[in-house]
Amino acid sequence: MRYDTGGDLLVAVLRELGIDTVFGIVSVHNLPLVEAVDRELRFVPVRHEASAVNAADAYGRARGTLGCALTSTGTGAGNAAGSLIEALASGTSVLHITGQVESEFLGSGRGFIHETKDQLGMLTAVSKYAATVPSADAAGRILREAARAALTAPGGPASVEWPVDLQYAAQTDTAVEFTEAAVPAPGEDELAAAGALLASAERPVIWAGGGATRARTQLADLLAATGAALVTSNSGRGAVPEDHPQVVGNFATTPAGRALLADADVLLTIGTHFRSNETADYGLGLPAAHIQIDLDADALGRVYPAPHALHGDAAGVLERLLPYAKPAEPGWTARVTAVRDEVRATLHDNIGPQAAICDAIRAALPREAVVARDVTIPSSSWGNRLLDMYDPRDNVFPRGGGIGQGLGMGIGAALARPDAPTVVIAGDGGLAVHLGELLTLAQERPRLTLLVFNDGGYGVLRNMQDRHSDRRSGVDLATPDFELLARACGLPYLRIAAAEHAEPVISEAVASDGPTLVEVDLAALGPMKNPFTPPVKIPTA
Ligand SMILES: Cc1ncc(C[n+]2csc(CCOP(=O)(O)OP(=O)(O)O)c2C)c(N)n1
Ligand SMILES: [Mg+2]
């Protein structure tokens, strides 16, 4: 197959991948790509390359596929790096294509415009896969290889740098045959031993991480067959809809969650990192009788000992474990539901007036709608656990914990899922990192409600300093007048300054067919019962 330019080839590959929207910033080093995408598909000109990757990442998450970001050479690719780190940390699929200087000058050090030292080395460090297009007959193979690497579980970002002269050149695209890599599967004996333990369980707990979202049916069947509790990491949320009576959810480290885990006799964990924030820095007590399923062999036994380590695909392994499942002892499932209710009621009470906002979001949104979250107190306290998720594709948040990525993610998700409204939860500090994306929001006009929780600074760090130190450092920030800012950008603006505003304001914003900036004035709204601080150690405290 012949294409006139690399841009035409890229469009063909993106169509194969089901991608209709691409995020990026145009440059002399990606012009043929941007022009073809804009002509044939949809090109969204974001205002920072980090946001391009965040938006592409969330587009992929919201559809359960992958997204595509286009950046420029050097600073543009470097700007993308932080968000590629997020995709790498979260195992989500992004095809990142960046320019490169003309192939003749690559690596020459002569200061060709945008030239950078070892761009491929940088991309390799922050991507699951990175490659340079070496010739006009190799681009198709490399793009498909990259997409495949990004999509193969555990996923990650794949970066392709493409010398600009080769983007302008006519392309020869030859069909590529990929051999299917064998899916690992545990042997019969290992499986039977784990099955025997599962069959003996009287008080089982299942812990679902992001890997479990690939085995939703099997997980639901296992819950039904065992009556087990389902605890999740933040990434595992929605694997089983969170209004299910056996879903305790992302509450493992609460007092009632810990007590439940202490009383459990068998733990089955599926596709989880046991990240520090979700295990009290790996100190959370878990049952020693532990069956761990993971597609990533390195994850098995990495944090908690796994006497039954099952290396394989979650769906396939659960399918084989299911025949061993037996109902839990009488009363266990009722206890699980009681814990589920208790942890939710306690948190609902603790967050004071913000509970009305959490309730209003859930009430206003259809059952399947994306909630994208930046790293802010409302997310860390209630957004990441109390606001029910019914599908993992709706649960978009930076798993690596970097601030500033929520709005870009929300824009990507909203454009990926135009049939439902999207809500973004952001703090004033996180929003300020990429304030320019308000203009992307205003220009693209997705159905997106941006809730900005304004406390005049980096509240979570301020709370830590107020508790542990006699000085505040770097936490109090000037914030814009959000009403004027919204007006300057051409965005509708609404304000929540009391709990009773939450329901009418959020339902109005969510019902709109375009974007709305909703400022939550936290000083006016009033405090939570206790100032929120994150689950990190302060050795001197
Ligand atoms: C890229 C990055 N830089 C710095 C941090 C440290 N950090 C974590 S939360 C936070 C404050 C965020 O402020 P805001 O968005 O206003 O949320 P709030 O804590 O006030 O609710 C900061 C600076 C981070 N997580 N990521
Ligand atoms: Mg703040």
Short note summarizing the structure:
The chain is an alpha/beta fold.
Describe what you observe in this structure.
With 541 residues, the chain is of the alpha/beta class. The chain is built from 21 helices and 20 strands. Strands 3-2-4-5-7-6 form a six-stranded parallel β-sheet, with helices on both faces. It has a six-stranded parallel β-sheet with strand order 11-10-9-12-13-14. Strands 16-15-17-18-20-19 form a six-stranded parallel β-sheet, with helices on both faces. The longest helix has 19 residues, at 332-350. It starts with a strand and ends in a 16-residue tail after the last helix. The model has no long low-confidence stretch (mean pLDDT 97). Bound molecules: thiamine diphosphate (TPP) and magnesium ion.
Task: Summarize the topology.
Blueprint: E1 2-3, H1 6-17, E2 21-24, H2 31-40, E3 42-45, H3 49-63, E4 67-71, H4 75-90, E5 94-100, H5 119-126, E6 129-132, H6 139-151, E7 157-163, H7 164-168, E8 171-172, H8 188-200, E9 204-208, H9 216-226, E10 229-232, E11 247-249, H10 255-263, E12 266-270, E13 290-294, E14 308-311, H11 314-321, H12 332-350, H13 354-364, E15 371-373, H14 377-383, E16 395-396, H15 406-416, E17 422-427, H16 428-433, H17 437-444, E18 448-454, H18 459-468, H19 482-489, E19 493-496, H20 499-511, E20 516-521, H21 522-525
Parallel strand pairs: 2-3, 2-4, 4-5, 5-7, 6-7, 9-10, 9-12, 10-11, 12-13, 13-14, 15-16, 15-17, 17-18, 18-20, 19-20
Antiparallel strand pairs: 1-8
This protein binds thiamine diphosphate and magnesium ion (MG).
Residues 374-377, 401-404, 427-430, 453, 455, 458-461 line the site of thiamine diphosphate.
